[in-house]
TrEMBL record:
<dbReference type="InterPro" id="IPR005025">
    <property type="entry name" value="FMN_Rdtase-like_dom"/>
</dbReference>
<dbReference type="GO" id="GO:0016491">
    <property type="term" value="F:oxidoreductase activity"/>
</dbReference>
<feature type="domain" description="NADPH-dependent FMN reductase-like">
    <location>
        <begin position="10"/>
        <end position="157"/>
    </location>
</feature>
<dbReference type="InterPro" id="IPR029039">
    <property type="entry name" value="Flavoprotein-like_sf"/>
</dbReference>
<dbReference type="Pfam" id="PF03358">
    <property type="entry name" value="FMN_red"/>
</dbReference>
<protein>
    <submittedName>
        <fullName>Flavodoxin</fullName>
    </submittedName>
</protein>
Amino acid sequence: MADNDITALALNCTLKPSPADSSTHLMSRQLLDRLAAHGVDGHELRLVDHDIAPGVEADMGEGDAWPGIRQQVLDADILVFVTPTWLGQHSSVAQRALERLDAELSTTDDQGRPILWDKVAIVGVVGNEDGAHHISAILFQALNDIGFTIPAQAAVYWNGEAMSTTDYKDLPETPQAVASTMDGAASNAAHLARLLRARPYPAVP
């Protein structure tokens, strides 16, 4: 792979199976489109469409879809982790993904480095209730713990009016503040991924 061939994987943590319309899907696609403008080739995976077993191992056995998803995470330079907000929290699907990624804490490369070093992560949060800062903090800490590097201003979110029923996907257009944050997050993520590709983290002495 050439140095400039940076790739991204968007993990869509909606609770709605395909082909249901989803605000999380919309934000995932918007972030991937902005990454594409920086030469990043990406695709989206809707986790709820796959049978991901509970647990904290890389492979939980027969019928577990996570090993194939895990390989896509390992193959991508940038992880786009997008979740809806329910009761002020990230979705149960998002939590399942974090629990399965926990297995990577003990996995190292041939230099003894955590296997997810040199990978970049950004976060998207949608919901018609508060909780985006809380969710972003949880996701960033968890993703950084397992090795992902977080770019500057890498949290993109939209909170609807309190007690309303309007969803992000129902808006006539993307709010300017959200659009500009997406632009910055995508630019910073692509920039950082290329830097880490060219100059990986050194092995720990």
